[in-house]
């Protein structure tokens, strides 16, 4: 998994700062995460949930609303409606990057804003709201005496989360005018609500109101004893696993999505990510990152090509041994395979240059279990019979072709004018 710093123009014209958490494993679509009121994309819940979802295969854009965190603008110039509009501009930016948003996740007032914003995102397939107020005006209670002063004088200074903010009459009026219940009842999308019964910031009654207003299919999951801000790893991990499992039913990418590949073998392509050599590997809905270490000019966000090749040998070895041990009924509890690669001169080469070096894979197999020496020796023999081992030792042929292609074209996986090369 890697996190990419991004920016785009917000609803008020200022630059919005975001982080794009790229997915790991089987690709499950792209999501936007909207943070809580006066929080930021760096809040604990925003970071932990976004990264946990990425581990489940869902790529996530988390960003600072205008006037918050690293985004440009003044908080005093924003309101609830501008937050909703920022979500819309974020979704439009993602679509422009070839990453249409299918899942919208919002936390606290970010969840309320997400409910209102959902109707304006055409590609959206599902909505998740975490500990969200059923009315945006709920947050006015956090302003204390400042709300009355702002309504009387036009603005007031208040402290929220220990930090000073300027609130305005326009903000308060906009919060009161938001029609959240009407918005959620008009949605024709699956809705998931998560809320802790003991939430001290936003009562679980708000989740009840939202659930009653939403149309089916709708789901509610209790966060048990979690705090409003999801302060514990166990709470964010649980929430992320629930969201990912629930979303899989609704937001599985189409076969022709640009982030999947249905052709034979694998597709490897540049990501235009944080470094010049970062590529993504797509195969049967799975996605991995391949890169070079920093000492070679890469960004070190994934294994290098030879490490991937070593992993193929190690994985094939382990799987082959497991199949053999299970078929024999041998008490093999665990198998581990360490593989190292280097280029070295052949043992019988006395005067060799760089071109005369050969690739050497050093493989160490570890076996846990009550097996005797004869069984260990036989397992080592079987290791040499794994298909990838045989491929590496016997040599291969690579059929190569090249084509001119525009980014607008869909991935076909069909080579043209292939040639044959012995390696």
Automatic annotation (TrEMBL):
<dbReference type="Pfam" id="PF12697">
    <property type="entry name" value="Abhydrolase_6"/>
</dbReference>
<protein>
    <submittedName>
        <fullName>OsmC family protein</fullName>
    </submittedName>
</protein>
<dbReference type="InterPro" id="IPR003718">
    <property type="entry name" value="OsmC/Ohr_fam"/>
</dbReference>
<dbReference type="Pfam" id="PF02566">
    <property type="entry name" value="OsmC"/>
</dbReference>
<dbReference type="InterPro" id="IPR000073">
    <property type="entry name" value="AB_hydrolase_1"/>
</dbReference>
<dbReference type="InterPro" id="IPR015946">
    <property type="entry name" value="KH_dom-like_a/b"/>
</dbReference>
<dbReference type="InterPro" id="IPR036102">
    <property type="entry name" value="OsmC/Ohrsf"/>
</dbReference>
<feature type="domain" description="AB hydrolase-1">
    <location>
        <begin position="32"/>
        <end position="237"/>
    </location>
</feature>
<dbReference type="InterPro" id="IPR029058">
    <property type="entry name" value="AB_hydrolase_fold"/>
</dbReference>
<feature type="region of interest" description="Disordered">
    <location>
        <begin position="393"/>
        <end position="423"/>
    </location>
</feature>
